[in-house]
UniProtKB/TrEMBL annotation:
This is Heme oxygenase. GO terms for molecular function: heme oxygenase (decyclizing) activity. The lineage of its organism: Bacteria, Pseudomonadati, Pseudomonadota, Gammaproteobacteria, Oceanospirillales. It comes from Marinomonas ushuaiensis DSM 15871. InterPro entries: Haem_Oase-like (IPR016053), Haem_Oase-like_multi-hlx (IPR016084). One of its GO terms (biological process) is heme oxidation. SUPFAM superfamilies: Heme oxygenase-like (SSF48613).
Length: 196
């Protein structure tokens, strides 16, 4: 069976997104860990700057009416203000070079970016634990990595169910997958820029 035939057997957009981006995710995971974000406050600051750029880039998507119709409750989810509070907890400003932000317009690609943003909260359980080494927590410095009030898993299951309830054309699904791939690539590119 060719890879394409195998890909076509993956049913449900959430599984398709996960399958199509697993290598991209692992690349980001390795690159983030190699930057040792929890070694000291300086490294953690760089990580917060990275998270800030990512969450500020996706923040407008959470306000888009068409996306709110696809994902009821979407406007309650963005973690931008939590990242900004984390920066302030560390005595940092929230200024940034706007040229670093991603400009997102395509509605269906935006679904892939949202998948990437929301899914990152699942892996954040591990990252949140690591911040405790630096004495940060949900009230100080690591707010954006804290679990959703409903808990990480129920919240993620709800988002996945919303993804799988969308009835997209093949072409629209392909754009969503491309959006998720682009989101991981953007995260990697930004990490490299901040490290330089
Ligand atoms: C060191 C950094 C990271 C680690 C250790 C990590 C780890 C994990 C883990 C353990 C899961 C859960 C897998 C599961 O329960 O099935 C996960 C899921 C996920 N992570 Fe990460 N992650 C990291 C960074 C990121 C970043 C930066 C993003 C996005 C920009 C991201 C996006 C996702 C997505 C979208 C999922 C959901 C996968 C799915 O089930 O469809 N992760 N991550």
């Amino acid at each position: 069976m060719s890879t394409i035939e195998k890909d076509q057997k993956i049913e449900g957009l959430s599984k398709r997104l996960k399958y199509s981006t697993r290598v991209n995710h692992d690349g980001v995971d390795k690159m983030v860990m190699a930057s040792e974000p929890f070694l000291n406050n300086e490294n953690y600051t760089k990580f917060l700057r990275l998270q800030h750029i990512f969450h500020l880039s996706v923040a407008p998507l959470y306000q888009r009416k068409e996306l709110q119709a696809f994902f009821p409750g979407l406007d309650e989810l963005p973690r931008l203000s939590a990242v900004e509070s984390d920066l302030k907890d560390l005595g940092l400003d929230t200024n940034m070079d706007e040229a670093l932000l991603a400009k997102l317009t395509d509605l269906y690609q935006a679904i892939g970016w949202l998948y990437c943003s929301e899914g990152s909260n699942i892996g954040a359980a591990f990252l949140y634990k690591e911040t405790q080494k630096l004495n940060f927590d949900a009230e100080n410095g690591a707010r954006h990595l804290a679990a959703h009030p409903e808990g990480r898993a129920p919240h993620w299951r709800k988002f996945v169910a919303q993804l799988d309830a969308l009835s997209l054309t093949e072409e629209q699904e392909a754009r969503a997958v491309q959006g998720a791939i682009d989101a991981f690539a953007f995260y990697k590119k930004t990490l490299a820029q901040l490290a330089a």
